[in-house]
Amino acid sequence: MTNSKFVVKVSRRGLQTTQYVQRLDRTPILMTTDRNLALLMGKFTAEDAVIALQNSRCTAELVSVQLKQMKQKRPAV
């Protein structure tokens, strides 16, 4: 069984590197170039981050990430 989460990918005009949202609780939003450090979030939170980042200098898009859910082992009684 897989679970879908989203990463916000940001491309800024004039920069060759792609950045990802790392933290949302600060202003301005903290960005990283390492995708492994990117914040995984639900669709509604990711859409809000895209709206907050959209301006004339950068374009933000949602990238879907598939996560495998591991079965939890029940503790022995």
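^ that was protein a. below is b, sequence first then the tokens
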Amino acid sequence: MAAFGLNDTIAMVMRILNEHQAIIEWWHNTNDLLIRLGLVNARGAQATRATHNFSVEWVQQSLNTVDKAGLQVDGEMGPATTAAVRQYQKRKGLDDDGWVGVLTMAALEKDTQGARP
């Protein structure tokens, strides 16, 4: 059995880094596509209170439909919407961080059968 030398270690690390870079590039391309399609904004559906955003309106309407959240559909990612998102994420077994990222968006779309307002 040959010894595993420094060059082998460096080669292995470089392969791992290259694979990691490919995954990161795929993730960025996917997010860019979702943003261009208007499915999410640059921060998922998280928006400042001053931002009127179609994606946030869709999230609010979806949460009202699937969780009877009683949210005002105003396109603002305020405390009530964030709390409703966290409750939904917790119920679905997702990371309950209040951010509507790809996994939360996919779960909402599945629960609403992809219906867009």
